[in-house]
Amino acid sequence: MHLIASLHHTLLRTGRRVLAAWSAWWQVLFTGAEIVVLALSPSSYDEPAERRAIMAHLYRASAPLLPVFLVLSALLSLVLIRIVVATALTYGLSQYALEVLVRTLVLELIPLYAALFVAVRYTMPESQRIRRLLADEQRRGMNAPNPGCARRPRQLLLRVDMLPRALAGVFSVLLLAALSCFIALVLTYLNVYGLSPWALADYNRSVGGVFSPAVTLIFALKTVFFSLAVAFVPMAASAQPDLLGGYARRSDMGEFARLLSVVLLLEVVSLLGNYY
User: Which has more pLDDT, 149 or 105?
Assistant: First the structure.
C-alpha cells in the first residue's frame, strides 16, 4: 500500500508539473500573439505619447548596448578569423577558409549572441520591471477600499508597458546583428586579403556563393525569429502570476533557461534547413 501511495503521489506531482509547464508556455504564446496583433495595428501608434514611449525604448534598447556589443563582437570575430585562417593555411585548405568563416561566424554565431546579449542586457531586466509594476499594482488594489480598482485592464498593460519594450527588443537584435555581420565581413576581408582593393570582386563572388537564396531566406527568418523570441518570451512571462496568484520576482536563471531553450530550438531548425 505504501508503494502504491508513493507511486500515486509521484505521478500526481509529475502531472501537476506538466500541466503547469504547459500553462506557462500557452501563456507565453497567447501573450506574444496579442503583442504581435497590437504591433501590427495602426491604432497602437495614434497617440503622441505612445509614439514617444516607443522611440524612447528603441533608444534605450540599442544606443547604450551598441558600443559595448560592437567592440566585443569585433574582438570575438577577430579571434575566430585568425584561428580559422591560420588552421586553413597549416593544412593547405586556405581556399575554404572564407566560406567556413562566413558560414560559422556570420550565419550562425552572430545572430545567436546578438539575441542573447539583448536578452541579458535589456528584455529580461525590463520584464522584471514589468513584474514589479504588476506586484505594486496588486498591493495597491488589495489595500484600496474597492479591491482591484488599482489594477489596469490587460489591454492597457499590453499596449503601454509590453508593446514598446517588445518592439525595442526586436529592433535592437536586428540592428546589432546587422552591424556585427558587416564588421565581421570587413574584418574577414582584411585578414584574408589585406588592404588591397583588387580582391573585392573575388571576395564578393565567394560571399555571394555562400548566400544562396535558400540560405539567405533561412538566415533572415532565423534572425527575425530570434528577435521575436527575445522580445516576447520574457515579456509574456512577466505577466504570468505565480501559483499564489502574485507577481513575486522570478529567478533570472530560470527565465534565461526558458528563453535559451526557444533560441536553441530555432537554431537547430535553421541548421536542419541549411545543411540537411
Answer: 105
Domain residue ranges in the chain? 31-275
Cα(89)–Cα(94) distance, rounded to whole angstroms?
A: 5
Q: Which residues contact 203 (CB under 8 A, 6 or more apart)?
A: 98, 189, 192, 193
Phi, psi of 63 (to 5 degrees): -60, -50
Higher pLDDT, 252 or 257: 257
Q: How far is CA 79 from CA 71, 82, 86, 109, 112, in A?
A: 12, 5, 11, 13, 17
* pLDDT given for residue 204 in this prediction: 86
Rounded Cα distance between 91 and 88, Å, is 5
If you search the block for the grid coordinates 531586466, which residue do you land on? 125
Q: How many CB atoms lie within 10 A of CB 204?
A: 11
**What predicted TM-score, i.e. pTM, was given to this entire model?**
0.85
The mean pLDDT value for 118-131 works out to 88
Mean pLDDT, rounded, for 99-112: 89
What pLDDT is stored for residue 151 in this prediction?
53
Give the integer Cα–Cα distance in Å for 125 and 226: 18
